[in-house]
Each structure stands twice: as structure tokens, then as C-alpha cells.
Design brief:
- The structure holds 2 protein chains of 2 kinds.
- Chain A is an alpha/beta fold.
- Chain A has helices spanning 9-12, 14-23, 36-44, 65-76, 91-103, 118-121, 127-133, 144-151, 165-168, 170-177, 215-218, 232-249, 258-273, 291-307, 315-326, 332-347, 353-361, and strands spanning 46-50, 53-57, 80-85, 109-111, 123-125, 140-142, 154-158, 179-181, 190-192, 198-204, 221-226.
- The longest helix of chain A is centred in the middle third of the chain and has 18 residues, at 232-249.
- Chain B has 4 domains: 4-256 and 267-293, no CATH class; 313-396; 409-502, no CATH class; 606-793.
- In chain B, the strands form 3 sheets. A 4-stranded parallel beta sheet of chain B has the order 1-6-2-5, with helices on both faces.
- Helix content of chain B is 55%, strand content 8%.
- The chains are: A alpha/beta, B alpha/beta.
- The A-B interface holds A 36-37, 40, 44, 65-66, 69-70, 72-74, 76-79, 84-85, 205, 213, 215, 218-219, 222-225 and B 166, 168, 337, 339, 341-342, 345, 348-349, 352-353, 355-358, 365, 369, 372-374, 376-381.
Chain lengths: 366, 793
């Protein structure tokens, strides 16, 4: 595989997808690449039996397995899937995984912004061709939605609630009738959706500048709320797995320090919950304390150790990276972070040298 | 799971030709009942023995009585007066619930149909408790059902299975692998799987644990009972919790002579059991007492449907759809938009999930998932999750059972019904009723009021007072009637049954409960409130006064004791009219007074916010020495002298003390004046305290103002020597100082002030009074002008 910063899921896990495809003997919804149980296995992990033995499929989404199952069944039906939740809860990743597993394509995406227009959702024109040949199929620039309908694959709509409500509503007729009308093309302007087409939307519930969805549009989706990871052990595991993947793609040949990953997982968990393991109340920062952020903080410290350090993570760099991740929205967050370290300096220093070093490094925060 | 289900060891137990057949159950499980019915048909037992305390054997016919409707339970109680369990001599109680889906109920029912005996074989309830270590088994907090399956949900085995298969909890695991799959298996396959699972769970439980929670003692006893039955009967069917099956099997296989455990001698009035109506809500493992299954009404409906159908096919699919539709209706009733399309999408979802999860039909968890996915529009949070809550409620059920055979009516319910009849209250309807109790003018008034207060004290939810004097808050004390709203709901019966350990009559239960509360009380104020409750209930607790005396003695809070004194004094005043013949209230007043009088001198210097409280209590003490405590006047007087001679004094408390001394002896007017002079001659900050001093003084002895005009002159001097800002600062205290004065006294004071300035009464008024006629004319004129303005616009 060629080297890219972030290859699409279907490329990154091409081997696994292929393996699942050849061993899949389940019933598939029309145009799906895999059966629902195989999609589940691709996302939640499991064993595949081949004639050469058993192959492990890596778990890619951690947390609520039932949510993934519901999402798969939703996509096999007539309603769209809307993944909602706080930022950094892996909604986009889940949406990519589902698209790659079901359709073999995770890049058919509309990115919702305040500037998204109806053209971007439905179709637009190549104006040079439009002027020279008039409205014809050649001059039409199909949107991911249109592509999805024509090919019978999923269209992903990222951050749908960043788009103004009236623009969001342009999806209603498509989702109701599974038809997109292009009046400019006359009799040829009716695009009927092929089986396998569906929409996966993602929306975050915490950022500023989001628009409420209309009731009519809501009715056309099944909603799934993706919660932050609540289990520290799981969070540590995610940090380790993700950091390993990032290190591999960044050619950083350095093992992930699991103790440091645990340190970070505990910090994020306690700050997010507003309570330490001993039950002491700590102030929650205004910033989003997502697992994705924790992974990013860890990878930053890892990169620093690889390029500047002695292949050992410097906890003061980790603390500085943490500061950068936490203190984004409000100045008060710095004080909250300091307050947290003050609390854990009493509670955790008995838990080993690493915590002592970590707490000591936090004194540099300012 | 497949490997587990091979069940090599477990299959040894399943022998339809053997003299005994051990049938393992999970309590309230429809699939267990389904196979049990089939096994009874095939095995044709001569007797059915069931896990359950044997002291309830005579209640078995009550459960299968045609007039009885489920949920019902056997209620057990035990009073540890002999201290077999601990030195605390506590009371214990628990339920053994039965639903239509309960295998135990179906075993009893089948025995009745076959004309064979059914018996409980477990240790008596008291003996189970005695054999249980502290804090374990039935002695765990809140564990109040005998039917306990929690051991099946412990251990690493099922957790590993859950992790591997993505199953969320034990109940989902159970439903998938037993409840639904089991319906499509032969008896042998199902029993082998269940025995295997129970055996694995058992092997993960230590002997220490099984000893501590009395499992082994119970099994020993059950095995002895089975062995006895085997001497008489050729085929014995034993229905027990699956966890016990292997333990019993090993014991019985070992053979030999079983020595039945010698039981402790428990007085007859200390233990017992009787049938009681139960509710689905209490039977819910998620809401009740942490055993049984969640969603009991759902599983009860499954079993009923299984009985109606020839084959189990479609039972779960149909039922989950029914609940989906009911859930949508419930949402509509709450104005939550759930359309037919949503129900259709949910139906597709639950079917799809069942297929994806490899379950033959969609069950409870697929139903919940479908509702979560399709009924909730938007982010899932507390408010948007209402549809899930509503469906959950439907699945739990709100039904309450009924005991048809009244010959076993619990004593408290019998007493309740008798008293309702005597007082003319409707106890035969669940429709709310109202009743009027004229407390002091009719013969029935007080007994009725006392009965209602007793039911209220027992927290039965039977009666609610709409109007009437409230002695605790002091509101509406002038009222002479009480209006009560009452309703006999099933919850009233349940609450009364719960109080069986407190007594066999309502009066006895109230007395014991009040005594228990008093025993646990540390604050005099709260103890006094309990005494007020007893007063209203017309009962006498703490006859030797030791409880309240101890509480008063140990409570170091002056204000708590002061409030207690207030309540005791009130009860003393009212005891004649309420015809109360309870404890000696004067003695309690004396005790509280003694406690206060010793603390009073130490309260000369207290924070501002406590001053009014101290003044109130001082006045109350003074009032008492003018009446029932005349003999203690000197003590109070001396205590006040000590207080006034303290170095640092709060001005208001000081003023009050001086006022009371003046009330004791008029010659103390001079001392009071001197003290005021002291404030007046002090620095500004001291001067300001003069207002507080006056407040305290006038609260205790406002007539001091009228003895001569000295205090008025001093007040005048206080006010006139202050600038505007300082005056505003002391104004609140001054207002309070004169607040207690009657209108006549205020007029009298005003006249005295006018005289001080050689003026007429009228001339010191801020504004002249307006002539009434002129005022009426002016207002009418205003109205006319407003009308003209509005009309003109």
C-alpha cells in the first residue's frame, strides 16, 4: 500500500475486508460487500476460520457493541443512520468503518459546514460544458449523494448540524422517495436510488454553531448516541492501539509505553468525570476531554521522544501537550488542570515513580 | 457456549427412571416452567418437593386457590428475641414471590391437578437466618427475597462469554442461551445445558461462601427431606434453584442415613408466615430486591402465551411486537411523536438484530434496542429517553395480585379492616374517599383521627390530611376538625404486611415503630416530634421516660432542647382537650428545663443569628415558671443573674434577661435603665447596640415602657443623637423592638412621645387623616377621568 497520511479505511484494512468477503457465507443486503455478521466482525473484531487456520480480525471500535449492531441493521433498512454525540467519540470513524465494510467505499462524503449549499448536497454543473453543450449528463457534477444513489452505496454526511437547517432539509425528499429530480435534464432527469444506498450522518452535540434538525428530517433517521468511553482500561487500550497505528504510519519505530498510556487514560477519565478514583471531586475543564484528544496528546509526546528525545517519553512534554489540548476554550481550564494535578499529587504519588515524575512535570504548567 | 452445552457431567442427573428427578430452575423463568410441565408429564412423580422454607407448607393451597390471582408471595418474618443471630435482637422479614411464570408455582399447580402432594423442603426462614453469617446471604442489606438467583450471575465464566459474544449482562446472556433457545430444545437438551451452567457457577463459588450464606446447611436439610420422601414415594420430583441441583445430587448419590438438622427453638409469636398480595414492580429484579428476572410482566406474558400456543414458534416475536405497539401508544399519550412508520422500523430493527445476534426470535433486549434506535429522536439523554422508560414500565407491569382465601389474612390487615368497619371507613374500594373528623365534639372524632394518624405514621399511603391542626409545624392550630382523604390501594396492604414484625395490631406496630425511632434518635427536637406523633396517635411510648430523658441528656444543642421544650409545653396544654393519657409530659418538660437552665448562663455571648432563638427559649422558660414549673422560679432567676453578670453579652440577649428580671422583680427596672444608659453613653458602635438591647428588653417586658417615661426618653435620645445613615442601620432592630406592641400600646407610646415634646397627639402624625367621603369622591373622579381618557383614544 502506498504511504498516505490517512489512507481510506477500505485501503487500510483491505486484507481484512477481502478475507471476510471470501469467507462470508451470510445473507447480504443487495449491493453490500459483506453480510451484517461479517460487518459486525470487521468492526468489533473476531476470528475468521480459513483453511489455513484461524485469523484474528482486529477490533476497531470500542465501547457499545449493541450500538454497532443497531447501526448495521438500520443501514440495511430504509432509514438513514444518524450518529450523534460529543466530539471525539469516534462517530466519524464508525461511519467510515460501516461504509467501508458495507459498500467498500468510505470516501463518498459531504462535509457539512455553515457554507454548505444545496448544490453540494444534490448536484452542480461544470459551467464550461454547460455553456458549450447545454444541460446534459456530461456537464453534471454529481454530489456524493447522487453518486451514492446511482451506485447503490452509502453517502456520508459529516457534521450535518453545521449546515443550515433549510439546506439539511434538502435531504428529506431524497430519503422519502429515494428519487432525485434534475429538472434541467428533462425526461432523463430522474435519478432513482439503487438498492444499497443509504445515508450516514454525524452530528456533534456540544460544539458551538450547530443547527437544530427539523422534525421531518429526524423522522427519516434512526439516531444512535455515541458515548465517551467510560472504562479507563478500555481507554488505555484505545490509546495504545491508535498510537501504535499512528506510529506505524509515521515510521516511528518505537514501542508504545503502556504505563504512560495508562497515566494519560486515567488523567482524561478523571478530568472528564470530574472525580478521581479516590472519589475526590475535581473541576471539569470546559474543553472536550475525548479519547481522540488523548491519543493525539500521546502521539505528540511519542513523536517528540522519537525525534528529539532518547526514545523515551518525556513526561514534561506529555504534560505540555496535555496543556495544549485542554486549555483551548477558556483560561480557567489552566487553573482546573493545575488543580487536578494538585489533587493527584496527594493521591497518586504512592502509586509509583511514574506518577511522581508526572506530577512533578506538571509544575511546569503555566 | 457450544462446548459448555455438551453437559457430560450434568446429563448424569437427568434420568427419567430414577427414584428422584432434580429439576433446576431460575426463579420466574418461563422456559423453566415450560420444560417443568413437560417433565412432570413424562416423569409422573408421586410427590413434588420444592425449594422454599417448609414452615409455609400449609399455605400451598392458598396459592393455587381459584380466587387467588398472582403476583402473590409468602411473607416470612422472624423476631430474634432469643438473639440467635446477634445481640441486636433485630426483626427480619422476607418475601417468596410467585408469578404465573414461576416454575415453583407451576409445580404446585401441577401437583394439585394431578392430585399429588407438593411440599416445601428448605430450612424454616428463622433457621436459614441463624445459619447465615453476618452481612451474607439473606442477611445482606436489602436482600428480601428467598428466591435468589444472584449466584448464577456471578463468576468469570459468564462474563468471559459476554465479552466474547458482545452480550451486555447476565440477563441478556440468559435470555439468548436459555430463555429463547431453550424453548426449541428437548427437555434433556435444555436440562443438560442448564445443569452444566449451574455446575460451572457452583464450581466458581467457594465452600466458604456457600457456608456463610447457609447454602450448604440448606442443601443438607433439603437432602434429608428428599431422602425421607424417598422412603415413602417411588418417584420424587425436586424443584430447586439450579445452583442447588448438583449439591443435592452429590449428597443423594452418596446415600447413607441423613440426619435432619436440629432446629433452634423459636417461640411461636416470633416467627411465622402468611400469604400476601405482591406486585410486578416488586418482583422486578431491576427495581425490587435484586433477584428474579427483570421485566416480570413481560416474562409472565411469555408463559401465558406459551400455554395458549401449541408450539413455541412466534411467541417471542409476537409478544415483543405487542409491547412495541403498546409502547408507541404510551408515547402518544405523553405527546411523544411516535408514528406507525417508527413502529414498523422498530419491528424491522428487532427482527434484524435477532438475526444478526443468532437468536431465533427477538426478545427483550432486541425490543429495547429497537425502541432506543427508532423511538428516540436526537441525542439520547434523560429527557429524550422517555420512550425507553415507558416501554420498560410496560414490561415491568403494574399489576398487583390478590389472595383469595381470607382465612390466612395477615394480622395487621385483619386489624385494619376491623377498625375501618368500626369507624365507618370504606376499605372495600380503591376509589378515594373523604372523611371529616370533628376532633372534640363527636365521640368518633378523636378515634378516627388517631387511626388516620397511625396509618400515616406507618407510611402506608392510606390517609392524607387535607385540613386540620398541624401540631408539628404549628399551622392551623385553631382548627377543631380534620378532613382526611383516604384510599385503600394494594400498596396499603403491602405496607401493612411489611410492618408485621412491628406488631400484630396497628396500635402495637405504631408503638414499636415509634419506640424504635426514638431509640435511634439523637436529637431532642426530633424525639419531641415523635412524641407529638404519638400524642396524635393516642399511643404511649417510653412509659418509663428513659428514652426521651436519655436523648435530652445527651443532646448538647441548646436550640434542639429548646424546641423540644416548646413541643412538650404545647402537648401539656393540649392533653386535656385531646384526652391524651400517655406519658407524663410534665416530667419531660422538667428534664428539658433542667438541661436548658444549666446551659443558659453560657449563652450570654452568641452570634447575632442565634439571638432570637435564645430570646424565644428564655421567654418560654419564664412562662413555664409562671405555671407548671413555679417551683423552679428561683433557679431561672439565679441563672439570669449569672447571665447578666457575664463580661461579654449579646445586647439583645442581655436586654431580654434584664426584661425577665424586671418581670420577676420590678426593682430591676433601675438596672435595666442603667444598662441602657451604658449603651447611650458609649461610642457610636456601642450606641447602635442599644437598639438590640431594647429589642430584647421589650420582647421580655414591654410594660417597662409604660411604668414611667424613662425608656421612651432614652429611646428618643438614642434616635436623635444619630445621623441619618446610622439611624438607618439600627432601624430594623428598633422596628423589631416595637413589633410586639399592641395597637393600643403603640397609641399609648405615641401619646407619651407627643407629651415629651409638649405636643398634641394628632400633631405628631406624619400626615393628617383624609376625610373618608372626600377619599371616595376622589377615587370616583379618578375612575371617570381614566374612562374619559381611554374612551377618547
Amino acid at each position: 500500500m502506498e504511504n498516505y497520511i490517512k489512507p481510506p479505511v477500505e485501503k487500510r484494512y483491505a486484507d481484512e475486508l477481502e478475507l471476510l468477503k471470501v469467507t462470508d457465507d451470510g445473507r447480504k443486503p443487495e449491493n453490500w460487500q459483506l453480510s451484517p455478521p461479517a460487518v459486525r466482525k470487521f468492526i468489533l473484531g473476531g476470528e475468521v476460520r480459513t483453511k489455513d487456520g484461524s485469523v484474528t480480525i482486529k477490533r476497531k471500535f470500542y465501547g457499545n457493541d449493541a450500538l454497532v449492531e443497531r447501526a448495521i441493521i438500520t443501514l440495511a433498512g430504509s432509514r438513514g443512520l444518524m450518529l450523534v454525540g460529543e466530539p471525539g467519540t469516534a462517530k466519524t470513524m464508525l461511519s467510515e468503518l460501516l461504509s467501508a465494510a458495507c459498500c467498500g467505499c468510505s470516501t463518498n462524503t459531504v462535509q457539512g459546514t455553515a457554507g454548505t449549499t444545496e448544490d453540494m448536497i444534490k448536484y452542480s454543473w461544470n459551467y464550461a460544458l454547460l455553456l458549450s453543450k447545454g444541460p446534459c449528463r456530461e456537464a453534471l457534477v454529481p454530489s456524493p449523494l447522487l453518486i451514492g444513489m446511482e451506485k447503490g452505496i452509502f453517502a456520508r454526511f459529516e457534521e450535518i448540524t453545521r449546515t443550515p437547517a433549510e439546506i439539511q432539509d434538502s435531504l428529506i425528499s431524497v430519503m422519502s422517495d429515494q428519487i432525485l429530480s434534475i429538472p434541467e435534464l428533462g425526461d432523463d432527469g430522474l435519478v432513482l436510488a439503487r438498492p444499497g444506498f443509504n445515508i450516514i450522518g454525524t452530528a456533534n452535540t456540544r460544539d458551538k454553531g450547530v443547527n437544530e434538525m427539523s422534525g421531518a428530517l429526524k423522522r427519516r433517521f434512526n439516531f444512535e448516541t455515541v458515548e465517551p468511553v467510560k472504562d479507563v482500561r478500555l481507554e488505555k487500550e484505545i490509546i495504545i492501539h491508535e498510537a501504535e497505528d499512528l506510529a506505524k504510519s509515521g515510521h516511528i519505530d518505537m514501542p508504545v509505553d503502556t504505563d504512560v498510556a495508562e497515566l494519560l487514560a486515567v488523567t482524561y477519565h478523571e478530568l472528564r468525570e470530574g472525580r478521581t478514583a479516590n472519589g475526590t471531586i475535581v473541576e471539569k475543564p470546559a474543553a472536550v476531554m475525548s479519547t481522540a484528544e488523548a491519543v493525539s496528546v500521546y502521539f505528540q509526546a511519542l513523536s517528540h521522544a522519537w525525534y528529539y528525545g532518547q526514545r523515551r517519553i518525556d513526561l514534561s512534554v506529555l504534560a505540555q501537550s496535555l496543556l495544549g489540548a485542554v486549555c483551548k476554550e477558556s483560561k480557567d481550564d489552566l487553573e482546573k488542570l493545575k488543580g487536578y494535578f494538585k489533587t493527584v499529587s496527594k493521591e497518586k504519588t504512592g502509586e509509583g515513580e511514574l506518577w511522581k515524575e508526572y506530577v512533578s512535570a506538571s509544575k511546569l504548567l503555566r | 457456549m457450544e462446548r459448555v452445552r455438551i453437559g457430560v457431567e450434568a446429563s448424569e442427573i437427568i434420568d427419567f427412571d430414577a427414584p428422584f428427578f432434580l429439576f433446576p430452575v431460575r426463579h420466574h423463568s418461563p422456559v423453566c416452567s415450560y420444560h417443568l410441565k413437560s417433565v412432570i408429564k413424562r416423569y409422573r412423580p408421586e410427590i413434588i418437593l420444592i425449594e422454599g422454607p417448609e414452615n409455609a407448607n400449609d399455605l400451598i393451597p392458598v396459592l393455587t386457590d381459584e380466587r387467588t390471582s398472582l403476583p402473590a408471595a409468602i411473607y416470612y418474618y422472624y423476631k430474634d428475641k432469643k438473639k440467635y443471630i446477634s445481640d441486636d435482637a433485630q426483626d427480619y422479614k422476607c418475601y417468596y414471590p410467585f408469578l404465573y411464570s414461576s416454575p415453583e408455582y407451576n409445580a404446585i399447580k401441577a401437583a394439585k391437578e394431578l392430585g399429588i402432594k407438593a411440599e416445601f423442603i428448605d430450612l424454616p426462614y428463622s433457621e436459614i437466618l441463624i445459619n447465615t453469617a453476618k452481612g451474607r446471604g439473606l442477611l445482606e442489606n436489602e436482600k428480601r427475597t428467598i428466591a435468589d438467583d444472584t449466584k448464577l450471575a456471578k463468576g468469570d465464566f459468564y462474563k468471559a462469554l459476554c465479552d466474547k459474544t458482545g452480550i451486555r449482562d447476565f440477563d441478556e446472556f440468559w435470555e439468548k442461551y436459555f430463555e429463547i433457545s431453550g424453548l426449541f430444545e428437548s427437555d434433556e437438551e435444555f436440562l443438560a445445558a442448564l445443569h452444566t451452567y449451574c455446575l460451572i457457577s457452583r464450581r466458581q463459588t467457594s465452600t466458604e461462601e456457600m457456608t456463610a450464606d447457609a447454602t450448604l446447611a440448606r442443601e443438607e436439610y433439603m437432602a434429608a427431606n428428599i431422602s425421607e420422601a424417598l422412603k415413602v414415594h417411588k418417584k420424587v420430583l425436586v424443584v430447586t434453584g439450579g445452583f442447588h441441583s448438583y449439591g443435592l445430587y452429590e449428597r443423594l448419590k452418596r446415600g447413607g442415613e441423613f440426619k435432619k438438622k436440629k432446629l433452634h427453638i423459636v417461640p411461636a409469636d416470633c416467627t411465622g408466615c402468611f400469604p400476601a398480595a405482591y406486585s410486578y414492580e416488586a418482583a422486578d429484579a431491576m427495581k425490587g430486591y435484586s433477584s428474579g428476572m427483570r421485566a416480570p410482566f413481560f416474562y409472565d406474558s411469555v408463559y401465558r402465551k406459551l400455554e395458549e400456543s401449541a408450539e413455541p414458534d412466534g411467541v417471542y416475536d409476537d409478544l415483543t411486537l405487542e409491547f412495541l405497539i403498546k409502547g408507541a401508544k404510551a408515547c402518544k399519550e405523553r405527546d411523544i411523536a411516535v408514528s406507525i412508520a417508527d413502529v414498523t422500523a422498530a419491528e424491522t430493527m428487532k427482527g434484524g438484530l435477532a438475526a444478526l445476534r443468532g437468536i431465533r426470535e427477538s426478545g427483550l433486549y432486541e425490543l429495547f434496542d429497537a425502541v432506543t434506535s427508532t423511538f428516540i429522536k436526537g441525542e439520547k439523554n434523560l429527557s429524550s429517553s422517555v420512550p425507553v422508560e415507558l416501554v420498560s414500565k410496560l414490561l415491568t407491569g403494574d399489576g398487583v395480585g390478590h389472595i383469595g382465601d381470607s382465612s390466612h389474612t395477615p394480622p395487621l390487615i385483619a386489624d385494619f379492616e376491623a377498625q375501618c368497619t368500626a369507624l365507618g371507613l370504606r376499605a372495600d374500594t380503591a376509589v378515594p374517599q373523604e372523611v371529616d373528623a370533628a376532633l372534640f365534639t363527636t365521640k368518633k372524632g378523636l378515634p378516627l383521627s388517631r387511626f388516620m394518624h397511625r396509618m400515616k405514621f406507618l407510611e402506608t399511603g392510606f390517609a392524607k390530611r387535607l385540613k386540620g391542626p398541624d401540631l408539628t409545624s404549628g399551622r392551623d392550630r385553631n382548627r377543631v376538625r380534620e378532613i382526611w382523604k383516604y384510599r385503600r390501594s394494594p400498596a396499603v396492604d403491602s405496607a401493612l404486611i411489611d410492618h408485621t414484625t412491628d406488631g400484630f395490631t396497628i396500635e402495637e406496630a405504631c408503638i414499636n415503630l415509634a419506640a424504635k425511632r426514638l431509640l435511634g434518635e439523637r436529637r431532642a427536637e426530633s424525639a419531641a416530634v415523635i412524641t407529638v406523633d404519638c400524642f396524635l396517635m393516642g399511643i404511649s411510648v417510653d412509659d418509663d421516660l428513659s428514652l426521651v430523658t436519655n436523648i435530652l441528656a445527651s443532646d448538647g444543642d441548646f436550640f434542639s432542647v429548646g424546641t423540644a421544650l416548646y413541643y412538650f409545653q404545647m402537648l401539656y396544654d393540649l392533653q386535656g382537650i385531646y384526652r391524651y393519657q400517655g406519658v407524663n409530659i410534665v416530667s419531660q418538660i422538667n428534664t428539658a428545663f433542667s438541661k436548658l437552665i444549666s446551659a443558659l448562663p453560657t449563652l450570654s455571648d452568641i452570634p447575632d443569628e442565634q439571638a432570637d432563638g435564645v430570646i424565644r427559649i428564655m421567654r418560654q422558660m419564664y412562662d413555664l415558671t409562671g405555671g407548671i414549673l413555679t417551683s423552679r422560679r428561683d433557679e431561672l432567676f439565679n441563672s439570669l443573674i449569672t447571665l447578666t453578670s457575664a463580661g461579654k453579652k449579646h445586647p439583645a440577649v442581655y436586654g431580654c434577661a434584664m426584661g425577665l428580671l424586671y418581670a420577676f422583680d420590678a426593682k430591676y427596672q433601675h438596672n435595666a435603665e442603667l444598662a441602657m444608659q451604658g449603651y447611650l453613653n458609649g461610642a457610636l458602635s456601642v450606641k447602635k447596640q442599644g437598639a438590640d438591647y431594647l429589642r430584647g428588653l421589650f420582647t421580655a417586658a414591654r410594660d417597662i415602657v409604660f411604668s414611667d417615661n424613662d425608656f421612651l426618653r432614652m429611646t428618643d435620645k438614642l434616635i436623635t443623637n444619630m445621623d441619618s445613615d446610622d439611624f438607618m442601620e439600627i432601624l430594623p432592630s428598633l422596628r423589631l423592638a416595637f413589633a410586639a406592641f399592641t395597637p393600643r400600646e403603640i397609641q399609648h407610646t405615641a401619646a407619651a412621645v407627643a407629651e415629651l415634646y409638649d405636643m398634641e397627639n394628632e400633631s405628631i402624625l406624619d400626615k393628617k387623616a383624609v376625610d373618608e367621603g372626600l377619599f371616595i369622591f376622589g377615587r370616583a373622579l379618578d375612575d371617570e377621568i381614566m374612562k374619559a381618557i381611554e374612551g377618547g383614544a
